[in-house]
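Me: I keep going back and forth on a fold encoding question. No explanation is needed for now; the record alone will do.

Assistant:
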Amino acid sequence: MSKHTPKAHGHKARKRFGQNFLHDQYVIGKIVKAISPKPTDCLVEIGPGMGAITEPLLEASGKLDVVELDRDLIPILRTKFFNYPDFRIHEGDALKFDFSTILEPGQQLRIVGNLPYNISTPLIFHFLSHYAMVQDMHFMLQKEVVERLAATPGSGDYGRLSIMAQYFCKVEPLFIVGPGSFNPPPKVDSAIVRLVPYNELPHPAKDHKTLERVVREAFNMRRKTIRNTLKNLISAELLQEIGIDTGLRPENLTLADYVRIADKVVDLNLAENQNES
């Protein structure tokens, strides 16, 4: 891994892209060690920025796909990594990019990225919806987002993001990164998290879209009890029938509880459709 600090080459971090460029070599080394890239990996980096993590990833694996939205950075990256024939840049929005186009048969994606705060949650949901093609994900996020991803029932951080991430993945917070490691320094701490999709889901739902809807409805009014937040989807009597305490607030229910509720809603909808036909 090179020892020099990446210079900005006259590129100014852009607020609208939520850019904060990592420059701390010690932190970069820790991230790359956590990822442990291999030449056989199908590695993809989201928003490589000035290439701070890109460089050691390329040194370790020899090949890398990157998805970058800021077109001003693309010539900088092309110049910097011109001597890597298997370095491929895809200009565009990671939320709209078809990641299946870079997969070789029999491979899964290893996704890496320093995700801007303004799109981190939608991007994580986007990757979760394609979890079967993903081997693992290593993201740098605002510390509070990592706390929400890893939160357990009963905590204030526990919510929609916690439940849906933990439905698909094992969530492992790795370490915190202070503002001084970036240019410009953000106003908050960041953290590195590892998300590893399960080969077999521990609590498979009959329909994960219904599960998403149940969880979204539940947390729309997190201060109310579950009987009130879900009354448009399922009655309090049916919740009690499947062993749910209807006096609890949404953050007190486990992932398994939400899957039970979602499965019951699927059954209700099926019964209604059969009655109508």
